[in-house]
Amino acid sequence: MRWATKPLAELADFRLGKMLDEKKNRGELLPYLANVNVRWGEFDLEGPREMRFEHDEMERYGLTYGDIVMCEGGEPGRCALWKEAVPGMMIQKALHRIRPHACLDNRFLYYSFLHLGRRGAFHSLLTGATIKHLPREKLAKVEIAFPPLEDQRRIATILSAYDDLIENNKRRMTLLEEAARQLYREWFVRLHFPGHEHTPITDGVPEGWRKVSLGAITTKIGSGFTPRGGESSYLAQGVPLIRSQNVYDDLFQENGLAFVSESHAADLAGVTVESKDILLNITGASVARCCMAPERYLPARVNQHVMIIRVDPEKADPFLVQKAITSDERKRQLLSYAQKGSTREALTKEMIANFEIALPAEALMWQFGEMASTSFRQREVLASQNQKLRAARDLLLPRLMNGEIAI
């Protein structure tokens, strides 16, 4: 059966979000999504921002289950399907909210956008010389090919089965990471570590613990730079280049991972990421976010916004050091350093080298490190499974969306 093709304007309702204006906005403080919160197929909901919305704006700018949220700028066309992860969520002006009519399955429309994005089909519609945009009037012209509704649902069900498995693995990864984070808090913040009942504590510090600077327990602290050619030199595959958007607290985000050629990687050989390296964001809004380097993408490189902290395994356990850096008190201190003497938040190599953490007695440190390492390896296995699931889905995507596979 032939598929129909129509412009999006005939198939869906869509609108931009609300302009952020602290002086003019009135009403109730509500969380909202900005461009940076939307990834392909998922949302970054860490620390959502808030702005004021009046009662009559709730429907105009609010999200409901099944809405497609698409970036108007940044990487125009990038989108994800909203599943009410946070109640009362609104959108800012840099985002389109798309609601398909009854003739389209919302999941099918999302996969149509994903397919179009992979093919570069949005490029001819973009405006702007340096910062690209996909304005509403251009989005309205996007051509959507679609079969009868039942076939749409069958296609969407096949593709979403892969994404459901990926999402389930992500939940398991989150639980593993949360368990490691809670163990650190219990042992090293609340001081309920094994044997704490018999360990003398003086001035809040257990016997055998000591404060050390990161410079004293590391073999490398350093950041990279943007390769020759800037973002125009990035490839679909090659040597991974880790940037600030990939580094979150206790989590490596592979969405947005860039790749460079072997020659560009050679220029960055001095910042080659190795196993058990700690990655730290050192500039901008994501400053002080920190995670372990992902084994599945090694060897990688970092740009100027990410610092490698390589712990000497003879002196400390890297998993404990990483957790110490991301603990609430230490993170607040890092943020206070970043805000001193600069119009833009930034951390320097000297700041990091002089930054102090508390190391517990050796036996306790290695015990925690072994448990955290096991959790990390389990998360890496799940992340590798997700890579394979995405690859399988992406092989099917164009064939299903072109009608090549009979449903």
Keywords:
Adenine-n6-DNA-methyltransferase TaqI, Chain A, domain 2, 2 domains, 407 residues, four-stranded antiparallel β-sheet, 33% helix, single chain, 25 strands, 9 helices, alpha+beta
Structural summary, described in words:
With 407 residues, the protein is α+β, with helices and mostly antiparallel strands. The chain folds into two domains: 4-146, Adenine-n6-DNA-methyltransferase TaqI, Chain A, domain 2, CATH 3.90.220.20; 168-386, DNA methylase specificity domains (Adenine-n6-DNA-methyltransferase TaqI, Chain A, domain 2, Alpha-Beta Complex), CATH 3.90.220. The chain is built from nine helices and 25 strands. The chain has a four-stranded antiparallel β-sheet, covered by helices on one side. The mean pLDDT is 92.
Largest sheet: 4 strands, antiparallel
CATH architecture annotation name of the largest domain: Alpha-Beta Complex
Could you state the CATH homologous superfamily of the largest domain? DNA methylase specificity domains
Counted by DSSP, the helix tally is: 9
Count of all domains:
2
